[in-house]
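Dear Dr. H.,

I hope your travels went smoothly. While you were away I took the liberty of generating a structure for the chain from your last submission, since the lab meeting agenda had it listed for discussion. I wanted you to have the full record in hand beforehand rather than looking at slides cold. The sequence, exactly as received, is reproduced here:
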Amino acid sequence: MFAIYSKLENDYIRGLFFELMVFLFDAYPAFKSKVQQALLRGLSDKSVTIRQKLIGFWSDQNRLSLDPVKRLKQVFSELYDPNEEKQWLNNAVYLLLHVSSHSLDFEKPMFDMPLSDCRFDPMEFKEQAYQINRSQPLTPLFTQASQLMIFGS
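The corresponding predicted structure, in token form, is as follows:
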């Protein structure tokens, strides 16, 4: 059924389809697993309005926790669908980052002034330090190989 509605060009009809899916998801637990796949696909719909409505649907605290750690666990355990694997990472990251929109500082600017008004100085690198360390192995400290070299000599 989703294959038919996802190919329709009319955003209004696709929007009605997703409203029906939301209703079925909430009202009939027996349909939850079947409808969930369509609701997850809707997060990648070409219509911004549909995507925003479905982000709001999934971001409701009755579905996904506002605690980022719990939400991460829920995204992995409840929202992963092997059939939607191509879009899953994009949707998961968006749903995880959406939690930050509930922060009091969300609308606060990150910097005191626009970056276009800032003065940037070039950063200088000492090439000699780079040349000296260039051929050293990247073996992490305290691994068995490094311990053998220390105690074996």
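Two observations you may find useful: The radius of gyration is 25 Å. The mean pLDDT is 82.

With kind regards,
E. W.
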